[in-house]
Amino acid sequence: MRLVVTRPEPEASVAAEMLRKAGHEVVVAPMLTIASRRDVHLDVGGIDGLIATSANAIRAIADHVELPALLAMPLHAVGAATADAARRLGFRTVAEGGGTASALAEQLGSSQTAGAHLLHLAGDVVAVDLARLLSPRGIVVDTVIVYETIPSAELGSPLATDLRRQAIDGILLLSPRTAEIFGALVAKAGLAAEARRPTYFCISERTAAGLVGLAAPKLRIAKKPDMPSLLALIGQENAQLPGPV
């Protein structure tokens, strides 16, 4: 299949390589650019632990002046990819969540005692308000923005050309915001009709909901909100395609 990877770099290139190894053609078309905030103040005094809901947050603090103090704190990661990034950076105590911010909130509500004070290392767009969810359990969450997400202004000529030529079989979407940006750029380019042909491989129901403006008819949802499940979904779809005659 000819597939489009829409996630930001560096994850886009990693996903593209996985797909190429599986025999697919890949178009890399990030819908977002990640920019770390270098001047953010990170004070862990009085903090019982850190929260990271994206590997982008881990990369954003990689060269922060307070990194040694941060690495000494327990870190609660949203899922496997973020947990792996944290361990590679040097965090010694990492708790891995269930893959979504809502699932992480449930885990924190069970594992943390009332009065716990956590610091959420977040991006400028936060899909789930952890402070609101955990406040009824007596858990305080402070949110600090360590990176910004900059949406693409255009769809990009290679992808637009492929959509016009009906040369795209599938499009990978890994966040609600990415799905919303993709839909908006497709509409801006006047390609809404052409964009209904490909199959959309979405990492979650929330992500698929981001395509509401596109009314894409062919949606596939991963069984779990992680990249391995999404790759398995693509493999299943590819296996159902007719072979060469």
Explain what the structure shows.
With about 240 residues, the protein is of the alpha/beta class. Helix content is about 35%, strand content about 20%. The protein has ten helices and eleven strands. Strands 3-8-7-4-5-6 form a six-stranded mixed sheet. Helix 8 links the parallel strand 9 and strand 10. The radius of gyration is 19 Å and the shape is elongated. The model has no long low-confidence stretch (mean pLDDT about 90).
Secondary-structure element pattern, one letter each: EHEEEHHEHEHEHEHEHEHEH
Largest sheet properties: 6 strands, mixed
State the end-to-end distance. 16 Å
Strand order of the largest sheet: 3-8-7-4-5-6
Uncertain runs are none
What is the global morphology? elongated
Global mean pLDDT: 92
Question: Helical residue percent?
Answer: 25-40%
Query: How many β-strand stretches?
Result: 11
> Over all CA atoms, what is the radius of gyration?
19 Å
Content-based structural category: alpha/beta
Annotation field: number of helices: 10
Strand content: 15-25%
